[in-house]
From TrEMBL:
This is GNAT family N-acetyltransferase. Residues 115-250 form the N-acetyltransferase domain. Signal peptide: none annotated. It comes from Micromonospora maritima. Gene3D superfamilies: 3.40.630.30. It comes from the Bacteria. The lineage of its organism: Bacteria, Bacillati, Actinomycetota, Actinomycetes, Micromonosporales.
Length: 250
């Protein structure tokens, strides 16, 4: 399963506006943002990597004007961390990823006064991205590039879900990457502060996941940012499966 998850990361990065193939690595870059959570690299699962490959990767990042950074499933490149740290990279985080398959998904009860649906207009997309940004401590006003990025993701087969109150406020949302090989990453599950502790994060996660399974996705995966979100994801059917590494050159 680790190899399938890692291959889905490769596919996600190849869907970036300007993907770069550098030896055994794929870098996904987006000229509209310098965000390291969007511009990063990953190795192809099982590919042999040398110190020269790492040097070429760093040079490619520098040429693109982006910070050298990688995210990957550790078992798919067991010797890579040592090469990276030897080149000056520093570990940012080690995460456990969680999986859900159709047989384990649990749909929580419907919530009163909140409707979940996919954004169909740029106004709705801006509301969703703004709610996500606010929930994660960022600028609550979505940029045109943010909206275009979400529109492009939906157009490529990705999922986006927004939670809208009876009063028309976007309380939160989430999404998933375009499926690749029957696998899709669920990400960006966010709830604005006034609407937390009501089961909304679980409802959004389950709805995004169900939409993936409805179109034939076999495996959905995600990462939890802390104990609270871990519990939310487990309640709707996600289970811990493997390790991922976040590492960057300072």
């Amino acid at each position: 399963m680790d190899a399938r998850i890692q291959q889905s990361v490769v596919a996600n990065l190849r869907n970036r506006p300007v993907p770069l193939e550098v030896g055994p690595f794929v870098i996904g870059t987006d000229p509209t943002t310098s965000s390291p959570s969007i511009n990063y690299a990953t190795p192809r699962p099982g590919a042999a990597v040398t110190a020269a490959d790492v040097a070429a990767l760093v040079a490619a990042f520098r040429a693109a004007g982006r910070k050298p950074r990688l995210e990957y499933v550790t078992s798919c490149a067991p010797g890579l961390e040592a090469l990276l740290t030897g080149a000056g990279f520093v570990v940012e985080a080690r995460h456990t990823y969680l999986l859900c398959v159709p047989g384990t998904l649990r749909t929580p009860p419907a919530l009163d006064h909140v409707r979940l649906h996919e954004p169909a207009t740029d106004t709705e997309r801006a509301a969703l991205v703004g709610a996500q940004n606010e929930a994660f401590g960022g600028d609550p006003v979505a940029s045109g590039a943010d909206v275009a990025r979400l529109r492009r993701q939906q157009g490529a087969g990705g999922v986006a879900v927004m939670a809208v109150t009876d009063g028309g406020t976007c309380a939160g949302g989430g999404g998933a990457a375009p499926p690749a090989g029957g696998v899709s990453e669920v990400a960006g599950i966010a709830v604005r502060t006034p609407y937390r502790r009501r089961g909304l994060a679980g409802a959004i996660t389950a709805d995004v996941t169900r939409r993936l399974f409805d179109v034939g996705v076999e495996v959905a995966w995600l990462e939890a940012s802390g104990a609270d979100s871990w519990r939310v994801y487990e309640r709707v059917g996600y289970r811990p499966a493997g390790g991922r590494l976040y590492i960057a050159l300072s």
